[in-house]
Amino acid sequence: MDEPDLQTLLREGIAAAKAAQAEAALVDKSQSSRIHRIGAAKTSQRERARQLLLRVTELDETNITAWLWLSTVLDSLAEKQVCLENVLTLDPDNKAARAGLARLDQLARSAPSQAEPSKIVPPPPREEKRTVSKAAKASGISCPFCRQTISAVATTCSHCRLPLVVNCPACGAEVDVEKSTCTRCGRTMGDYRHKLKYFVELATASQEQQRYGEALKAWQAVEAIKPNYPDLHLHLAQAQIGLGREDRATLSLQRALKENPNSTEVHYVLGEMLRQRGEIEDAYARYLKATQLDPRHGRAWLRLGQLYEQARRGKEALQAYQRAAKVLETGSVESRQVRQQLQALQPALPEAMMTGWSELIRQMSGPVLVCLLAVLLDSGLRPWWFGWSGWLSLLLAFLGAFLWVSADSLPRNPLICQLVGHEGLETTDLRWLIAFSGLFCWILAFTLIIMPIGQSFPEPPNL
Fold it and tell me: Is 462 among the domain residues?
């Protein structure tokens, strides 16, 4: 969740807490019985304030204001104490927290201690965990993951730190982890008993829907279950970048690079973040590293093409886009973007021309005519003087021109389609090898012409 939403929750929570205090004060003045005072303490405003402020502390554990106000709407003295101690941990000189703890100490001395479990009490050591009774399980106050006793209104287990309420990736509605489907849209949520798989699928689906707050929460649950999950810090960084938390994302990416320096995706994501910051040179280095580690990383080639184009390096941009077009999935957003950039840099010929004889003959005629003219000049403009090497050079020139044109500009010309099929050479990865073979044939033909082999011209007559 982004910052404005967090501040809105905090403001609404404080307003509800103040309203609850005002209602409680009115009841205290008009009613003297303890029953009425208890009823006033459990008003809807108090419950609303509790839920809102709990939500704020879950999103931002360092929010001192939220912890202070939360301590005023909780019923348990133990929960109030934890809130105030959290404030002192963040701000040891906080006078309001110290005064609140002093009041709680007085209340604790004058009344029996409350044994009510707290949803915000830190998890006890392993040896102190106790088996939950059947009655506790039946009452619905045990964690479905670790089976420890929790508060009836908890949204996160205070023992295993796993969320008890998640958000549907499709509609964003809050869903209890024990429910197999979303109550709002009916989406299947998975089986919470497969803890790791459940939260990984939830995080992935949320990230695909660009619900980065929910994705981050789910990846943090994965971290609690399996801290060494593959590419965990990369996933955390992607969610943090989506939320605009670039400082935390940088730390996550640094940890990911430390664990796997040759991770292509880590270099790419780091390049994305640097590009958004405007650090173009550093971003370029990361994209280049990604393509060196994985030459089939289409998105990195796309970004390189864009950076080359911004730097007015048209030839490099064209080559990068061509590499991206070969490996990106056909029909994807990135693939369509690459096609548009290629058309802008190198407008494609009409389909009829790319598959017609006229364009093939036109493009081949230049190299072939050069060799033909050289052979004519070498034979004194007398075609009947052509030797076997002259005819061989013309054949090689024709073959070389055909291979070069087919691999470079007309991969679906009619002759090549008849030889290899309808797709021609458009989808093959050997186009550069075919083009090189064509160039070699043409150079060999020209060599035969300028260095005649096996030719014998008639002697000129004696005058």
Answer: no
